[in-house]
Design brief:
The structure holds 2 protein chains of 2 kinds.
Chain A lengths: L5 E8 L2 E6 L3 E5 L14 E7 L2 E7 H5 L11 E7 L2 E7 L1 E8 L4 E2 L7 H6 E6 L4 E5 L1 H5 L14
Parallel strand pairs in A: 2-11, 5-7
Antiparallel strand pairs in A: 1-2, 1-8, 3-6, 4-5, 6-7, 9-10, 10-11
Chain B lengths: L2 H26 L4 H20 L3 H18 L7 H24 L8 H12 L15 H7 L5 H12 L6 H7 L5 H15 L2 H4 L5 H25 L5 H25 E3 L1 H4 L2 H12 L3 E6 L4 E3 H22 L3 H6 L6 E10 L2 E8 L6 H10 L5 H6 L2 H5 L23 H10 L3 E7 L3 E9 L4 E9 L2 E6 L3 E8 L1 H5 L1 E4 L2 E6 L2 E7 H4 L13 E9 L2 E7 L1 E9 L13 E6 L5 E5 L1 H7 L17 H6 L2 E9 L3 E6 L5 E5 L5 E3 L2 E6 L2 E7 H4 L12 E8 L2 E7 L1 E9 L11 E7 L2 E6 L1 H10 L5
Parallel strand pairs in B: 2-4, 9-18, 13-15, 20-29, 24-26
Antiparallel strand pairs in B: 1-3, 4-5, 5-7, 6-7, 8-9, 8-16, 10-14, 11-12, 12-13, 14-15, 17-18, 19-20, 19-27, 21-25, 22-23, 23-24, 25-26, 28-29
Classes of the chains: A mainly beta, B alpha+beta.
């Protein structure tokens, strides 16, 4: 868009660094007690009570199709604002806010699994690692074909 | 903009709406002096106010209208359809003037001479001779008569009593004579006093945003109250308990009060329909009677706003496409006057609105053909779809089968927009139709932002809220009754509730929850008797907790597809609980499915019904060739047993299973199939549990679990078979487990 550096809120899933634009993040909170929703799509981990507001939590691991968290490992909630209100994304671990520059951006490689490629807008090449830019809107958009069987087959 | 003008705009548009209603109403009751007075007052106010703030045009137009009405009031002029039409066109001109005023702040240069001329023409016409008496104030007796509560004789009687010196009031006499119920008198008195009250002084206008804010705060207060109430159970301090009690009561009242401020009767929207129907009917030469039921059904204000346009469109549609011209109707042997029926009611925490007409109904074949022509469907698909599915195609974008595009509808931009708009507020639309007899559109809108009383239940360790409106009663089966109370008809569980069979639904199974986790209530069965879509069913839950006021919060978009939840709420302990959608649940349990719909498709045959049911089936092999399937819902577990573990009780084969003695049934033997000669390794057992008892069905090999629409062909033979079906290109027999278990039991093979 512009030459001004963009800020990303980063987090880790299965060892990889992902990021969403800082301005879409409402807040980051540690693990919350969750109410699971029977018969809901697999990627929906449950509902949390965010100060009187009921927020749907989407497990990014399931959404990205990278297998479940180990027993006892508690995810962190990254609450993002979407066009349909706040949604919590469950991630393994929260990272720093990083500044990136447009010149370091590249499209996601074609070899990426189709599920991931659909959700990842591109990659910023940081000094030591790669920052995968997550498309929040698509990540929370699961009402289409993305159900139990695994997302991303349009 | 000028403050006065702004106020006039609000008041004016309300008065114009009221005029619309009153004129149409007057056409039905041409003798109502009260209506004439009301119309006169409205026009008079319009004229007076506009004059005061210098809106000359509006003043002059309404001045002529007022003169006409004043003559009508004095009985010197009779209102006929033609005069009403002219007056209505005056209302329309007023509306245009108001619209200009709103956008520009001035009256604009709209040419009103035509309407003023035609109004004047009426005045010039001959005056009726004798002026009648001034219209009387509305009497209680009149109101009651109008409402059809009492007979004319009863009122006359009461009046005579009074005339003979009875000091009691008319209402008292009527109640004491048993001529009218107390409630009716109360209502009538209220409506009488309302008509006396000056509406200006009894109402104030409040910003909706402010109401929203207050509503949210009250919601939070209710949660806090619930938390405190939970806390009170551990407290003994009487002052604290008293205060908590008071807090409880006040919160409840406050909540009710605030809720009411946001609620509006749906009649507010419906009020404009008589005019629309009248105009459309006149312009298309049709005869239409509009009936409304449940106009007092209250809805949240935001929802009222949102459904206004969709409803109007549906009504236009019904008039244009649904109801036929009088001669067509006559030819079809129907009354020449068509009926458009609006109905609103609360059910299951939702507001239902039904719009039905007795017109031609949907031409399903035309829709089918059109869908194929438009490439929306292939011919094969179209042929396979149910009538109901075909009917719902009218909600597809760009779809219209109207022979001619009229200015009313038929452009194919209608019903899909209706659907989108209603879905936007979390509602659903459904259409059913019988060719030649009319169509019914059903709209269901959830109560967002609402606080409702609910029953909290636990199943599989999770709490669920059941809206109290769906609740009929609670039944608890203990001891012996718990063991034998639930009976089976094929795979359907039923309970005899006072002699009637009540279909039973297990919440754990429907929601695929873990079985009763804490083992609580194992020895007892809790049945929550619920009402959905006009039918009752019993929901078996692990535990029944308490009733609570809950704040309904809508579910996010991601969960919209889950039909069995109406929303979620935050419980006193801060955790989230899901609110069950009873109708949705019943549908999942295929209780209130389309085959039960009282409309269209009663003629659908058995096999089609069976075909519509997508179910999971467990496939297994018995003997060398026998391929069988059972509904997965009949299977509680799959187990392997060492053949050495089989023991005998009497002559029955049993195994020890989870601290119980479980009888084994060899399927091959039961169905007289050739058994597999020799079998090595562990025994494959399908465990079927019912009412706390398990039976092991011995099979030879578990093959697969499939999800498939199975179309069952009934076989004449064994009662233990539901029939057969083609699964994976093989003819497969479908086992009727309950029947099998029963026949085994009757043969004394199992307990």
């Amino acid at each position: 868009m512009s030459a001004t550096p963009q800020q990303f809120c980063t987090f880790f899933i299965q060892g990889l660094m992902y990021g969403v634009e800082v301005k879409t993040v409402q807040e980051v909170i540690r693990h919350q007690e969750m109410t699971s929703v029977p018969l809901a799509p697999h990627v929906v981990a449950g509902l949390i009570n965010l100060r009187g507001q009921i927020v749907t939590a989407i497990d990014l691991r399931r959404r990205l199709g990278v297998g479940d968290r180990r027993e006892g490992e508690l995810p962190t909630n990254v609450v993002v604002r979407t066009s349909d209100g706040a949604v919590s994304l469950l991630v393994d671990e929260i990272g720093d806010v990083v500044e990136v520059e447009e010149k370091d951006f590249e499209d996601a490689p074609d070899t990426l699994a189709s599920t991931s490629r659909e959700l990842i807008r591109g990659v910023y090449k940081l000094n030591n690692e790669l920052l995968l830019v997550l498309d929040t809107q698509r990540s929370v958009n699961i009402s289409a074909s993305a159900g139990e069987s695994g997302p991303g087959t349009h | 903009m000028d403050e006065f003008i702004q106020e006039f705009l609000i008041e004016g548009s309300e008065l114009l709406d009221q005029l619309d209603r009153d004129f149409v109403e007057f056409e039905k009751n041409p003798n109502s002096k009260e209506l004439v007075a009301q119309i006169f007052r409205a026009i008079h106010t319009l004229k007076g106010t506009s004059g005061t703030i210098g809106l000359k045009k509006i003043e002059s137009v309404n001045h002529v209208g007022e003169s006409i009405l004043s003559r009508v009031r004095e009985g010197r002029l009779e209102l006929n359809a033609q005069i009403i039409s002219v007056l209505l066109s005056m209302v329309d001109v007023d509306r245009q003037l108001l619209a200009t005023l709103e956008s520009t702040g001035e009256e604009g240069d709209l040419d009103c001479t035509a309407v003023v001329q035609s109004l004047n023409a009426i005045l010039v016409q001959q005056d009726a001779p004798e002026p009648e008496a001034a219209p009387p104030a509305p009497l209680l007796g009149h109101i009651l008569l109008q409402q059809g509560v009492v007979s004319e004789g009863a009122v006359a009687d009461a009046v005579e009593h009074q005339a003979n010196g009875d000091p009691r009031l008319i209402g008292e006499i009527l109640v004491q004579n048993g001529a009218a119920p107390q409630m009716a008198i109360h209502d009538a008195l209220q409506s009488q006093s309302e008509s006396r009250e000056d509406p200006v002084n009894s109402n104030i206008r409040v910003d909706v945003n402010l109401l929203d804010k207050v509503m949210n705060l009250v919601g939070e207060l209710v949660l806090a109250r619930n938390q405190i109430l939970q806390f009170t159970s551990h407290q003994k301090d009487p002052t604290f308990l008293n205060t908590a009690q008071r807090l409880n009561l006040i919160t409840t009242e406050l909540q009710e009060g605030v809720m009411k401020t946001r609620m509006q009767p749906i009649g507010n929207v419906w009020n404009k329909f008589p005019r629309i129907v009248r105009d459309l009917a006149n312009s298309s030469g049709k005869l239409v009677r509009l009936e409304m039921e449940g106009a007092q059904t209250e809805l949240d204000k935001t929802i009222i706003e949102a459904i206004k346009d969709p409803l109007t469109h549906i009504i236009r549609n019904s008039l244009d496409h649904g109801i036929e011209a009088p001669d067509e109707r006559q030819a079809a042997g129907k009354r020449t006057q068509g009926l458009l029926f609006l109905r609103a009611f609360h059910e299951g925490g939702k507001v239902n609105i039904e719009i039905s007409d007795d017109g031609a109904g949907l031409d399903l074949d035309a829709i089918r053909a059109k869908a194929v022509e438009r490439g929306i469907l292939t011919a094969q698909n179209a042929a396979r779809m149910t009538d109901r599915e075909i009917a719902s195609l009218i909600f597809t974008a760009g779809f219209s089968t109207a022979k001619k595009v009229t200015n009313i509808s038929g452009r194919g931009v209608g019903m899909d927009v209706v659907k989108t708009n209603i879905e936007k507020i979390g509602g659903t639309v459904d259409i059913s139709s019988v060719r030649g007899h009319g169509a019914t559109l059903k709209i269901k809108i959830p109560l967002t932002l609402a606080i409702i009383p609910a029953l909290i239940v636990t199943s599989g360790g999770e709490r669920f809220a059941i809206p109290q409106v769906s609740l009929v009663e609670l039944v608890r089966l203990e001891g012996k009754a718990a063991e034998t109370g639930i009976e089976r008809i094929q795979e359907a569980a039923v309970y005899r509730l006072r002699g009637n069979l009540l279909p039973i639904v297990y919440l754990n199974r429907e929601l695929k929850l873990a079985a009763n986790v804490n083992g609580a209530g194992e020895e007892a069965i809790n049945i929550v008797v619920l009402q959905a879509d006009g039918r009752q069913f019993g929901l078996i839950v692990d535990e029944i907790n308490d009733t609570e006021e809950i704040v309904v919060k809508p579910l996010s978009k991601q969960l919209k597809g889950v039909a069995c939840f109406a929303g979620a709420t935050i419980m006193g302990d801060g955790k989230v609980a899901l609110i069950l959608d009873i109708v949705g649940l019943a549908q999942i349990a295929s209780l209130a499915g389309e085959s039960h719909d009282h409309s269209a498709d009663t003629a659908r045959d058995d096999s089609a019904q069976a075909a519509g049911k997508a179910e999971s089936w467990l496939l297994f092999r018995v003997g060398d060739r026998g391929k069988l399937a059972v509904p997965l819902s009949m299977v509680s577990r799959l187990e392997e047993f060492d053949p050495a573990a089989v023991e005998f009780s009497g002559n029955r084969q049993v195994v020890q299973y989870r601290g119980e003695i479980m009888p084994l049934v060899c399927i091959a033997e039961a169905l007289h199939l050739p058994a597999q000669a020799v079998r090595e390794g562990p025994m494959q057992v399908v465990v079927h549990s019912e009412g706390g008892h398990s039976v092991g069905l011995v099979v030879d090999e578990i093959l697969d679990i499939i999800d498939q629409n199975v179309s069952v062909t009934r076989s004449s033979g064994d009662a233990c078979l539901l029939g057969s079906a083609v699964i994976h290109q093989h003819v497969t027999d479908l086992l009727n487990v309950p029947e099998l278990v029963m026949s085994m039991a009757s043969e004394g093979r199992i307990a």
